Amino acid sequence: MAHTAFSSRAWGLALAPLFTLNFPLHALAQASAEAAKPESVTVTGRYEAPPAQMAGFGEVPLARTPLQVTSINTTALRDLGIDTLGEITKLDASISDAYNAPGYWSSVRVRGFQLDNRNNYRRDGLPISGETSLMLDNKERLEVLKGISGAQAGLSSPAGLANLVVKRPRGHATSLLLGWTEKASLKAAVDVDRQLGAAGSEDSLGLRVNAAYEKLEPQLRNAKGERGLLAATLQAKPSRDDVLDAEVEWSRQSQPSVPGFSLLGTRLPSADEFDPRLNLNNQSWSQPVVFEGQTASLRWTRALSKDWQFTAHAVSQHLHTDDRLAFPYGCSAENNYDRYCSDGSFDLYDFRSEGERRRTQALALNLEGQWRTAHLKHHLSTGLQWSQLTARFGRQAYNWAGVGQVDGSVQVPAAPDLTDENTQRDERSLEWHLRDRMELAQDWSLWLGLRASQLDRSSVRTDGSRAIRYEQRFATPWLAATWQLSPETMAYASAGQGVETDVTPNRSRYTNPGEPLPALKSTQYELGLKHNSKALGWG
Fold first, then answer.
1. Is 0.85 topped by the overall pTM?
2. For residue 340, which of 267, 397, 279 has the smallest C-alpha distance?
3. In this predicted model, what pLDDT tens digit does every residue of 12-32 receive, in sequence order?
4. How far is CA 256 from CA 218, 275, 394, 412, in A?
5. Where in 98-224 does DSSP place strands (E)?
């Protein structure tokens, strides 16, 4: 359902760092003794991006990878006032809005292509659904891989991938954040990080708990809401060679969404004609969009030798959504359905799709390490990934309710009858990957990637009609070469493929109803130059 791209968070959590307290509790008893010591202050002028987890080439610094990745940690996200994925457009000129309505899930474009909310979002490298409100309070960093990502995800739009890296236990610290944004939005968050047992010992146990609550009262009218998060991560080292990571997260957001504005006939409305704070979803029967999610993951890492390790990683995401909107759309009086009427009126629909359930499950087995052949040093990674996505819906309301006005002054009666069918979806995939970074010489490296995917998709309407099922197999290769011009500067060239799939709607007006289309392959060639020093970083 369409929602506006207007963002009311014009000024926001940039104030929050002023109210952030970070204090290791165990140090409070030493406060008086430390008071007499001279204090030192360290100021850093540039953020050093960590390696990108989803690039798939281990702990290689971003400045030395033949990929364009924006990676920013939680401190920088907080300092920039970024609270949702839709606000990452502040970070990079190649990342822009696709459709970011307050109260709805975020959609962004990368290099002009839209990230697919069903296939282009990852959590610690494993697929999740982006068709929900993804909160950042328990995330260590956000990574955006720009461009073709066939070597990292067999099915992906040419936009790339977005990856959320979950916070893990690091030691004894407690962080408290208090924030005030916009008109009267208030936020409180706490991050408790504890190491239980001796650090580095075989019986060490780490625990990290994040909790956040925000009262949403933006400058937009009729858009008050709330959201909250509770999450915990546990890290255990049962032996010298084994690490277990477990995490759970619960989140909920409830807020009325904001429908988009439109042309008035053939005329573009001027900015001074309408109050930008107006929300046309202001009927007496308007209800909030509610997103609730539960996510859990478990990862086991086993060191097989000094150079090789095995990882088994699983994630399960369960989403519940109530999607509701008083939806202004089209002008039947003028036989236009892509704009409002020239006199400022519009058709108003009652849209309700309640009890939507989405579930994503994935399991990845990965082996990585390094070895030498002749004069070459290989950094290898290979593994299997299985994933399953299901979406279950009931019948929905999408009914004409009356005629509204762009000044928001007209109230119409509700039309909540469930008269429209919805679509149930299932998708299963099995993927195998091989990645190799070969050191050809001191300054030259060759990078190879290949992903082979087997996809099984099906869908059916809630009344049992228009059933479709199809299977596809495809491979997505990737190749790059890097040349280290100096310790700070690297040049690279790469070529790769990505794949999207689609099917003809199973309706009689099509000549090939229900027929899967050939895999839609996209190809990318890229030349890049990167520089990274203590004084400056650019690419």
1. yes
2. 267
3. 333 333 333 444 433 434 444
4. 11, 18, 21, 18
5. 108-110, 113-114, 121-123, 126-128, 139-146, 160-166, 173-181, 185-196, 205-216
